Structures are given as C-alpha cells and as structure tokens.
Amino acid sequence: MKKLCVIQHTEAEYLGLIEDHFEGRNVRFIYHRPFTHGGTLPSGVEDYDGLVLLGGGPYGLVSGHILPTISKELKITEGFLAAGVPVLGLELGSVILSVAAGGGALEADLRFTMDEAAATDRGKDLLDLPATFPLSCYLRDLPKPPANAEILAVSETGEPLVFATGERNFGFVGHPGAKRGMMEDLIMEFVESPDDPHQTLVELGARQAEIAENLTGLMVALSRRMGLFEPAE
Question: How far is CA 168 from the centre of its chain?
C-alpha cells in the first residue's frame, strides 16, 4: 500500500474530490495539521511515498500574513525532492514547491477565481490534460517556477497554472478537486476573504460535474507519473 503525507494549512481545505481517487485504489493518505493544538509536521521523508502540500487560504509566502510553518515546510519539501520522492503542490502548495525546487514566489493579492486553463503540448503529453479545463484557484501570491520547470497549462493571460519540476513533481496554482462546499467553508473560516466571492462560488457549483469528469483522467496520469498506483482496470 502506498502512503502519502498531506500537509493541511486550514480546517476547511482538504484533498476534496481527490480523496475518492486515492481511496478507490487503496492509497493511504495521512493528514498533518500543524495549525491545530498538538498538530505536527513530519520529521522528514520517513516511509512516505509522496508529499501533498495543500492551499493556505489567505496565508502567503511573500505577502500578507505569512504561513507560520513555512520555514519548516520548505525544509521538508526540499528533503522529499532531494530523496526523489514525488511532491504535489496545490494552490499555496504550488508556491512552496516552486521555492523548494529552486524557483521563487511572486507577490499577489488574495483571490478566488475560476480560471480556464489551457494545456500546453507538454501538459497533454505528460498528464493527458484536456485542451482546456476549469481550475478553481484560492490563494495569495504566485509561484515563479524554476528555470528548468516545464509549463503544462497556462491561464488566458499566459501565466503558468500547472507546472512540473522533473517528471514526478507537479504544481497546480488551483485545486483540481475543489468542491463548492469546501470553498464556502474556507471563506467563512477567516476574517480576511477575497472580494465578492459569490459569483465564483456559483460558477464552481455550475462546473462541479465537469471538474469531477476531468479529474478522473488527470488522477490516472498524475498518479502514474508519481508512481503512486496503477490505473484501475
């Protein structure tokens, strides 16, 4: 059985629809919640087969309220990368991955958007990404992928939305398994929230079925690349 280390930064945001794909293929995931009383972070790679870094709501890496555990998390992520154990970063997690892999982070305001991602040829080849797909993005700051990163999908303005560092580590500026209810809870969890999130919530709800449909193929390709499990028969 494969085992993933999942670092959670807020009460509300978790793996979402991605959980079903792991559970359905007998992949175990262990949540680490350092923001809770007595919550801890992993000491290192340990016996994990992968690391997942989730979003952080209003927390940032270079602006706003800085993620309290960022120094430790960068060291942990660097350790996984050095050991060749795959890393998946979602939203703020993609910014952490970018920095740990030798890239950087760019200041950007807290926002909640439904982006229309466009896959690059490499994205179609590496992750079987559809030509275009919706991606829910709730985060502050942006990743600046390292020079050797491959851009797998971009926004309508050409900014990276999905990137790879090597062939086993992936950053998504959004959450490909986002659920409307999860995002509603995230908005209510903090005093600080994006401006006028209602319309984005409506669009997320309207495109929930499309998100779920696209996730099926993505999880097969992503997990194959990360060495987590074989495609289901």
Answer: 14
Looking up tokens 């994205």 gives 123
pTM given for the model:
0.96
Pairing of strands 50-53, 28-32: unpaired
> How is residue 111 written in tokens?
């926002």
On whether the CB atoms of residues 161 and 172 are closer than 8 A, the answer is yes
| 105 and 61 Cβ atoms separated by less than 8 Å | yes
The span from the CA of 128 to the CA of 123, in Å, is: 7
pLDDT digits (tens, 9 = 90+) for 33-90: 999 999 999 999 999 999 999 999 999 999 999 999 999 999 999 999 999 999 999 9
Q: What are phi and psi of 200, to 5 degrees?
A: -65, -40
Let me know how many helices (H) and strands (E) the chain has, helices first. Answer: 7, 11
Kindly list the structural domains of the chain, giving each domain's residue range(s) and its CATH number in brackets, ordered by start. Answer: 3-226 (3.40.50.880)
Name residue, tokens 């892999």: 101
Residue whose token pair is 């194959």:
224
